[in-house]
Amino acid sequence: MKKYALLLICTWLGSALAANTPTTTRVTAPELTLSIMQNVITPHIAQLQTASGELNQAMTALCQQVSDTHLQRAQQAYLNTFSAWQQISIAPLGPSKQQQTLRLFETPAHSTTELARQSQTMPSHPMTDGEAHYYGSQLPDGNLGLPVIASVLFSDTPLTLLQQDSMCAYTNWQAKTISKQVTILQYEWQGLIRGAAYDISYPGQLMNEYLNALEAGSQRLASFKLPNSANSHIAQEVNANIAGLSALITGANGIGLDDYLLSRQHQSQWLKTQKQLSTLQQAGQQLTRHASEHNAKQIRVAAQLLNNTLRSDVATALRRN
């Protein structure tokens, strides 16, 4: 909660807050969207770049010596990259939703049998990250990206699989491709932010995209279902989704939707949004403690209520201003 967030003397929980002098300064759409880009998206991309770089290094070390120790390091690096992406993917904006990036992170992997066959066709010479990205981008769907790495590292017999033919080199290839794509994504966002500071029309356009992304992200969580097969990462995925959506709504350390609404005297709409967002966060924590259908339903209910508020109360309030 930032400079406008204490306009009210009580929160939705009914707990008294220290009074703060209300401001009459209206937050503009460019101020909101530029702050979101700088204070939410930029740190998220930086986190993803760090994680993907560590995954690249961990996979390289694993292929140099296939061992339990290196496998565990690579698995943790994968989970860090997975979580960093989930914070972005729940409501991707601008360059983050381009097809080349989505293919690397979202396209389900083929079976390990098919991946082993595909690994035999990979370039035989050691590839730089740039080369890996170039050749990797030409692979068909299901044969590239983060899901491929997960299917190998978390298979029933990962060490055996990694020592089969070119599987380890193939998996390392995917890590290099991902790391390079994230670097490209970071450059794209940096250029866009610099351009948006001079082109006042773009932040206004991004405002609609931002609001639509919040609705789409909350609706995605409202349709959440526990997978039929065991998935030890499902709670981690959902909580990363919730964290990413929360940061976009509150603006992290900058201006957020709360500031935008409160500066326009839409206190009731923000308090309703805040309460539902908090309920969703609590439901995510419950899912971490126990991945049951009951707790999955709590995620769906809380997310649907948030989605309804964003589509009705918040959208109506914003149209009036």
Describe the structure.
- By secondary structure, this protein is mainly α.
- It is built from 13 helices and no strands.
- It has helices at residues 29-64, 68-89, 99-106, 112-119, 129-136, 146-153, 158-162, 167-196, 201-222, 234-250, 257-262, 267-289, 293-319.
- Helix 3 runs antiparallel to helix 8 (167-196).
Question: Which key features would you list for this structure?
Answer:
0% strand, mainly alpha, 13 helices, 321 residues, disordered N terminus
Short description:
This protein is mainly α. The chain is built from 13 helices and no strands.
Task: Determine the number of helices (DSSP H or I, runs of at least 4 residues).
Answer: 13
Give the overall form: globular
| Model regions low in confidence, pLDDT < 50 over at least 5 residues | 1-23
Largest sheet: none
Structural class: mainly alpha
- The radius of gyration is 22 Å
Please give the alpha-carbon distance between the first and last residues.
Answer: 22 Å
Order of SSEs, N→C?
HHHHHHHHHHHHH
Summed over residues and divided by their number, the pLDDT gives a mean of: 89
Share of β-strand residues: under 5%
Number of extended strands: 0
What percent of residues adopt helix (DSSP H or I)? 55-70%
